[in-house]
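Hi V.,

You were right to ask for the full record rather than a summary. Here it is.
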Amino acid sequence: KAISPESAEIRASYHHVKRVWLEDSTVRAAMTVTIAYVTLYTIGTLIGALYGFDFVQAAFESVSAASNTGLSCGVTSPAMPAPMKLAYMFQMWLGRLEFLSAFALGGYALAILRGR
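Predicted structure:
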C-alpha cells in the first residue's frame, strides 16, 4: 500500500462471523498496543540486564511480570534491588490493566490537572 499510487484502492478483509473490511484505524490501534507491549518488555529487560542479570533471564522475567503468568527463573525474589521491584510491579499493574485502560486513566488525570 505504501508504494502504490494514490489512486489505487487496496482493500483487505477478514472473516469474523461475517466478512469485515479491515480499516486503517483498526491496524493503527492494533499496532499501537503491540508496540506498547514490546516497549514495556524491552524496558523491563534492560532494567534487569543493567542490574547484572543474564539478558535472556531478564527478558523472561520481564515478559512474565507484564503478562502476570507468575513464572520465574530465579531473578524475581525478595532480595532483588528495590528499583527492579518497582519496575516489575509497574509492569504487572500495566499488563493486568492493559494499555487502553492505562491510556484512559492517564487522559482522565491530565484532564483533571488541566481543570476540564
